[in-house]
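User: For my dataset I need records formatted as: sequence, then structure tokens, nothing else. Please produce one.
Assistant:
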Amino acid sequence: MNRIYFISGIDTGIGKTVATGLMARHLRSRGVDAITVKLVQTGNIGFSEDLEEHRRISGAPRCYEDELGLTSPQIFKFPSSPKLAAELEGKSVDLRRIEMCIDACSRSHEIVLVESAGGLDVPLDGDTLAVDFAAKRGWPLILVTCGRLGSLNHTLLSLEAARARKMPVAGVVYNWAPDVVPEIDRDTPETTKAYLAKWGFPPVIARIPRIENGAWPDIDFSEMFK
């Protein structure tokens, strides 16, 4: 099987979906056969809205795996943790199905970008956090963060969670955020890079600028996919 990367963030609404779409765009522009997958989609009915956004940003049409449901193996209506959203429908998250679908995508594509639901410690069921599911399978983490007040703490806590599980980290995506204090915006990526190096991770940070009017930037993520 080919390479699988786990894209998570320090919080809900931090920009994982846009970051995942831009990474797929970068890889496609360089001739890499990449596909995106949504680990668990909540707050949704029908086709995954996050996958729809990935396809729009990357310029990729819906694919065979989309039609088979392999790229969004679990979808629940309620916008919450996967555990709660599944329980409200009288179900549980089928971790085995998720693994099988992602493995199937990996057999057909060079790189699979798996966008998580929420942050690293979001519960998938009563026993498994998202970070545990990904770390057990050896998927490198790409963490999405930004420079708003308090984000540095959440970034370092997330990296510590990966480090505690001996989870590889491919890099950090630093997303634009409104009303960021310039001093914090300068310090946060530098401090994050320093701790990445201190903890034995590649000190790789890719910055996403402000995006206006759907003018998607071409960002160089190549250091993350060596």
